[in-house]
């Protein structure tokens, strides 16, 4: 990857990326309120389990085929466009909670709009691809910014962990330094998972994040909440 592409990759995982990630906890708020997660160690174990067996792994595995579909679609292959939309819809269906599906659509739409504003409109008109969710939009950004699939997978996992840690700092007695320690501790796992998932067919792996799914489904029932999911 070129130096310029590496800098563009940093931009893609920047907290300043205007996609609204800061407003979501993806069920973490429920786990904290129920005292399932009450400490840095508990948060570490939960993040590790999600990286190894959660929905984020399935989405990460989908980035490389989504990236290829976008590339072929740009070159006029309309069948690739349909394959992309089919995979996008399949990924969205893996998210049981309506709040999570809404999050995926909102963040995906925001990233697509940002890329269009930066000079990379979606192929074949906005109406053809405006409904894609976050993983497909992330793959499109990777193609536009000339980021190779494995680096894109690392960025996707890194950004997910960073968002969860950011939410935890606001929910737990967890300081920013402890949050950074967690991010650093998980860096080797992120790199290894990205390498493994880049060559895996997403439809041949599974998510075991049942606890996370139940927490996400319960979020809408919270009496008071800070986050949208």
CATH class: Mainly Alpha
Please identify the structural class as seen in this structure: mainly alpha
From the N-terminal CA to the C-terminal CA, the straight-line distance is 35 Å
Q: Care to count the β-strands?
A: 0
The stretches of 5 or more residues where confidence is low (pLDDT under 50) are none
Estimated share of beta-strand residues: under 5%
Model description:
With 229 residues, the chain is mainly alpha-helical. It has one domain: Urease accessory protein UreF (Orthogonal Bundle). 67% of the residues lie in helices and 0% in strands. The longest helix is centred in the last third of the chain and has 23 residues, at 149-171. The protein starts with a helix and ends in an 11-residue tail after the last helix.
Provide key terms for this protein.
about 230 residues; mainly alpha; Urease accessory protein UreF; 12 helices; about 65% helix; globular
Sequence-ordered SSE layout with sheet pairings:
Layout: H1 3-12, H2 28-33, H3 40-53, H4 55-74, H5 78-93, H6 98-117, H7 126-129, H8 134-144, H9 149-171, H10 176-185, H11 187-197, H12 210-218
Helix pairs in contact: 4-5, 4-8, 4-9, 6-8, 9-10, 9-11
Could you write a compact summary of the structure shown?
By secondary structure, the protein is an all-alpha fold.
């Amino acid at each position: 990857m070129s130096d310029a592409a590496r800098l563009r990759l940093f931009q893609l995982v920047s907290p300043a990326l205007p996609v609204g990630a800061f407003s979501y906890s993806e069920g973490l708020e429920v786990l904290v309120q129920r005292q399932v997660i009450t400490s840095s160690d508990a948060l570490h174990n939960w993040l590790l389990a999600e990286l190894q067996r959660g929905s984020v792994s399935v989405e990460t595995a989908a980035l490389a085929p989504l990236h290829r579909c976008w590339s072929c679609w740009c070159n006029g292959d309309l069948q690739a466009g349909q394959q992309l939309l089919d995979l996008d819809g399949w990924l969205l269906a893996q998210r049981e909670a309506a709040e999570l599906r809404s999050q995926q659509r909102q963040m995906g739409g925001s990233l697509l709009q940002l890329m269009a504003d930066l000079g990379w409109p979606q192929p074949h008109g906005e109406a053809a691809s405006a409904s894609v969710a976050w993983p497909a939009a992330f793959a499109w950004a990777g193609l536009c910014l000339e980021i190779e699939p494995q680096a894109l997978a690392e960025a996707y996992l890194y950004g997910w962990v960073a968002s969860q840690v950011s939410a935890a700092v606001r929910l737990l007695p967890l300081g920013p330094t402890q949050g950074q320690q967690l991010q650093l501790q998980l860096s080797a796992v992120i790199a290894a998972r990205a390498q493994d998932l880049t060559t895996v067919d997403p439809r041949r792996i599974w998510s075991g994040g049942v606890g996370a799914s139940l927490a996400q489904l319960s979020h809408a029932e919270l009496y008071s909440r800070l986050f949208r999911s």
